[in-house]
Design a protein that fits this description.
alpha+beta, 3-stranded antiparallel β-sheet, Transcriptional regulator, single chain, WH_DNA-bd_dom
Length: about 100
């Protein structure tokens, strides 16, 4: 039986990765939009994104658009594989006869 990835398993990070996984490969989402979808405070989301970024599951890019700083987030290929493995481990845990 596979272990559930503790980086993804925390509820806030699981919700974050689940939302990011809905984006197509190469697409990204702005921090405020992600924050709104998850109904999280900016500090809480930033903390969880930092943990995901340290594991190379997400990429965070801060850029200037005109004079305004904007932060974009996307799921990396490593993050996509980790999430697929997480979902497989969860399915196995829930239905060991599979």
């Amino acid at each position: 039986m596979h272990e559930l990835d503790p980086v993804i398993h925390a509820q806030a990070r699981l919700r974050t990765v689940t939302v990011l996984d809905t984006l197509r490969v190469g697409d990204r989402i702005s921090f405020p939009k992600l924050q709104g979808l998850l109904a999280m405070t900016s500090g809480n989301l930033a903390t969880h994104l930092r943990k995901l970024e340290e594991s190379q599951y997400v990429a965070v890019e801060k850029i200037l658009e005109g004079r305004n700083p904007v932060t974009y987030v996307c799921l990396t290929s490593t993050g996509r594989v980790a999430f697929e493995n997480y979902k497989s481990a969860l399915r196995e845990l829930l239905d060991p006869a599979r």
